[in-house]
């Protein structure tokens, strides 16, 4: 993936974090998902007063794209308002695995990035064909 695409995805994820609803102590996260057709989707963390309802941005953005009929994705960027690298949680990994999102870009609010492959997170080959 070229630098311009990565830069656009990162900037979109940073923009998405501004909409995060984290009134109840969760971490503010933003995400940008690149569909295989080139469409970009953005999403943010949602932390409801209902304690079980805490959705990270990467799950929200994937649900948004899936609800619009997308099933194939090339990359996702996840940004968190923390120092250092944010690592997606288990629920997020399951979504990434099921939809075979190969490029995972972890970024901070300053735009520093770490590009990883799905296989870096998943040692077993239980991926969707």
Q: What's the story with the biggest beta sheet?
A: 5 strands, mixed
Q: What sequence of helices (H) and strands (E) makes up the elements?
A: HEEEEHEHEEH
The CATH topology is given as Cytidine Deaminase, domain 2
Report how far the terminal alpha carbons are from each other: 22 Å
Question: Strands of the largest sheet, in order across it?
Answer: 2-1-5-6-7
Q: What would CATH call the homologous superfamily?
A: Cytidine Deaminase, domain 2
Low-confidence stretches: none
Number of strands: 7
Helix content: 25-40%
Question: Class, according to the CATH hierarchy?
Answer: Alpha Beta
- What structural class should be given to the helix and strand makeup? alpha+beta
Coarse shape? globular
Architecture per CATH nomenclature, i.e. the level-2 architecture: 3-Layer(aba) Sandwich
- Total separate domains: 1
- What would you report as the Rg, rounded to the nearest angstrom? 14 Å
Question: Could you tell me the strand content as a percent range?
Answer: 25-35%
Provide the residue-averaged pLDDT. Answer: 89
Task: Tell me what the structure shows.
The protein is an alpha+beta fold and 129 residues long. The protein has one domain (3-121): 3-Layer(aba) Sandwich (Cytidine Deaminase, domain 2). It contains four helices and seven strands; from the N terminus they run H-E-E-E-E-H-E-H-E-E-H. The strands form two sheets. The protein has a five-stranded mixed β-sheet with strand order 2-1-5-6-7. A two-stranded antiparallel ribbon has the order 3-4. Strand 3 and strand 4 form a beta hairpin.
């Amino acid at each position: 993936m070229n630098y311009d695409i990565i830069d656009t995805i990162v900037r979109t994820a940073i923009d998405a974090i501004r909409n995060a609803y984290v009134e109840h102590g969760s971490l503010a996260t933003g995400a940008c998902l690149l569909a295989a057709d080139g469409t970009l989707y953005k999403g943010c963390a949602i932390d409801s007063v209902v304690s079980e309802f805490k959705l990270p941005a990467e799950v929200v953005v994937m649900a948004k794209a899936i609800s619009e009929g997308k099933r194939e994705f090339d990359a996702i960027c996840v940004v968190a308002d923390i120092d250092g690298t944010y690592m997606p949680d288990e629920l997020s990994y399951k979504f990434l695995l099921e939809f075979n999102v190969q490029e995972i870009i972890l970024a901070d609010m300053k735009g520093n990035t770490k590009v990883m492959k799905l296989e870096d997170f998943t040692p077993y080959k239980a991926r969707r064909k």
